[in-house]
Design goal:
With about 400 residues, this protein is mainly α. Helix content is about 70%, strand content about 5%.
Length: about 400
């Protein structure tokens, strides 16, 4: 009598399964899903390695305080990613609009209610946790900008481009008030990529690029902490470069195969090695091969994501998905470049790897949206691309 239930369980994810989870499983990019899961797992491993040193430095009794919290953040990120990736595109747009409004409202309140640290007011503290609303604003802004560009192209009288620039201007203005130059650079690059992919004239793109370069250059004169970081980068012999030097020493000490899990020593001497410099912790304990493989995983996510985005038929879906993957790739690039001392320090986390609740949850949201938009649906891809056929994701 138990045979039917056993058969149903055995075929829970059969191609004929029309439940929400069954449809999701056969339409989502499972390769992308697997690589993201691997990145999250690597982040948890590095958190367990870095947590004892970070806890001791901050006089926290539990040596695995940060590791346990990272596990909780990782689990919540998985829930957000899967839940968001199950939505229809229309629901993704609506969710992005609501998230952007809430994030902007919180960012407006930050000067009055926010927590200040290192000369910036970017966080809202409650119940022992810190929330950085700009992390959630970023993917929502990309979706809304792509939506407005697509609406503007329809020629129905909607001033899509003007609205998109307005949304971007509001977001940047609130980021500069905090101030947060790193996040400003991120959304500017993502906005520029969406602007270019929307098919606007190249002269407009070049004009926007010139304005962006001029604006970025002006931050050197307007924000003392930016000038300080640039000066330290350009003249390391005249400034305190302890964190960058320790990160470089950690990478060099790791060699090809690393000292071994938990055997790193540089993490005991640098305040931010479990956050901004988590890559260097991994490099010391697991070696150069691990570092290259980690970078390759991010490369896979971005390249595969952009490829799939460009094969979508709908202009909004193309621009939105590509913008989200650019956002992830740019953040990973900046963090890796800082760890390798190629650019001045930015305070930018490595997606899924660095410790941080807001970053982890926001990355789950970002890639959840991207996976939802790039899911295989009727009419989403042309049959000639092979992505519209059953079993295209294997």
């Amino acid at each position: 009598m138990s045979l039917p239930s056993e058969v149903n369980q055995a075929h829970a994810f059969a191609r004929s399964d029309r439940t929400a989870i069954g449809v999701w499983w056969w339409t989502v990019d499972r390769w992308m899903l697997g690589v993201v899961a691997l990145l999250i797992a690597i982040g948890v491993v590095i958190a367990f390695s870095a947590s004892p040193a970070a806890a001791a430095r901050m006089n926290i009794g539990d040596p695995f305080h940060f590791a346990v919290r990272q596990c909780v953040f990782a689990a919540l990120a998985v829930v957000i990613l899967v839940g968001m990736s199950m939505l229809e595109v229309k629901s993704v747009r609506r969710s992005a609009f609501a998230i952007w409004l809430v994030a902007i409202a919180v960012m407006i309140a930050l000067p009055f209610l926010g927590h200040s640290a290192k000369g910036a007011t970017r966080w809202l503290e409650f119940g022992g946790f810190s929330l950085q609303p700009s992390e959630f604003m970023k993917p929502a802004l990309v979706i809304l900008v792509a939506w407005m560009f697509a609406e503007g192209q329809k020629g129905d009288g909607v001033p899509g481009v003007s609205i998109a620039f307005g949304l971007y201007a509001i977001s940047v203005a609130l980021l500069l008030i905090q101030p947060d130059i790193g996040q400003t650079v991120l959304i500017t690059v993502a906005f520029g990529a969406a602007f270019w992919m929307a098919g606007v004239p190249i002269s407009w793109v070049m004009g926007l690029g010139a304005v962006a370069v001029a604006g970025l250059s002006s931050t050197y004169f307007l924000f003392p902490h930016v000038a300080s970081r640039v000066d330290r980068f350009l003249s390391p012999d005249k400034a305190d470069t302890h964190q960058v030097d320790a990160a470089a020493a950690a990478q060099a000490a790791g060699g090809f195969f690393g000292r071994g899990p938990g055997e790193g020593v540089m993490k005991r001497h640098v305040p931010d090695l479990h956050t901004d410099f988590a890559l260097s912790v991994g490099a010391e304990e697991f070696g150069l091969i691990f570092t290259l493989l980690l970078i390759a995983l991010f490369g896979f996510v971005v390249i595969r994501g952009l490829y799939r985005a460009m094969k979508l038929n709908d202009p909004f879906e193309q621009v939105a998905a590509a913008g989200l993957f650019v956002l992830v790739g740019q953040q990973a690039f900046i963090n890796v470049a800082v760890n390798l001392n190629m650019i001045p320090t930015k305070g930018m986390t490595l997606p899924f790897i660095s410790y941080g609740g807001s970053s982890m949850l926001a990355m789950g949201l970002t890639l959840g949206m991207a996976l939802a938009i790039t899911r295989r649906r009727p009419g989403a891809y042309t049959a000639s691309e092979g992505l519209a056929k059953a079993g295209a994701y294997t």
